[in-house]
Amino acid sequence: MASGDDSPIFEDDESPPYSLEKMTDLVAVWDVALSDGVHKIEFEHGTTSGKRVVYVDGKEEIRKEWMFKLVGKETFCVGAAKTKATINIDAVSGFAYEYTLEINGKSLKKYMENRSKTTNTWVLHVDGEDFRVVLEKDTMDVWCNGKKMETAGEFVDDGTETHFGLGKHACYIKAVSSGKRKEGIVHTLIVDNREIPEASE
């Protein structure tokens, strides 16, 4: 490449959504597990330029330049369900700042603790492909690799079954009472009559 040539570095014109050299003010990165997948949130904060940039999965969602107030909040949406996220910027001392992420008005830690009570997640490998299946217990919605699945519910002798398909594989999530008040209902994913262990997120 000749000097002064403005040609892209990528021959196939598939340049990445953002370049690492531009992200010199990157101050925080969070991975957030939602029903439609795990999303990466990155935040740039230029304390000398007043710049604030929020990226979700590498795509720029917010860009503000020359912000004179260095503390505050940036609110945006994440994922297919447009989940509300807020980055709080607080001064700790002098020119040091703390960055916290809230999801639906709760700290990320509280949100994830609550989410582990309201969802079940399974990760499996079928026909050479990885699948992440999420059950939202409150609505009984089933998500797979970021897409809400078409399901059919069925009452059975010992509980319920929520049926759906992964390619040519028959799947269902069985819901049965644990018989213990604190445990409540136990959800199990069955694929081709084989139980899949739950993933820990």
UniProtKB/TrEMBL annotation:
Protein's recorded name: Fas apoptotic inhibitory molecule 1
Signal peptide interval: none
Biological process, per Gene Ontology: apoptotic process; negative regulation of extrinsic apoptotic signaling pathway via death domain receptors
InterPro entries cross-referenced by the UniProt entry: FAIM1 (IPR010695), FAIM1_dom_sf (IPR038513)
Described function: Plays a role as an inducible effector molecule that mediates Fas resistance produced by surface Ig engagement in B cells.
Any Pfam family: FAIM1
Family membership noted in the UniProt record: Belongs to the FAIM1 family.
Coiled-coil zones: none
Keywords of this entry: Apoptosis, Cytoplasm
PANTHER family xref list: FAS APOPTOTIC INHIBITORY MOLECULE 1 (PTHR13088:SF3), FAS APOPTOTIC INHIBITORY MOLECULE FAIM (PTHR13088)
A cellular-component GO term for this protein: cytoplasm
Main location: cytoplasm
Location of this chain's protein in the cell: Cytoplasm
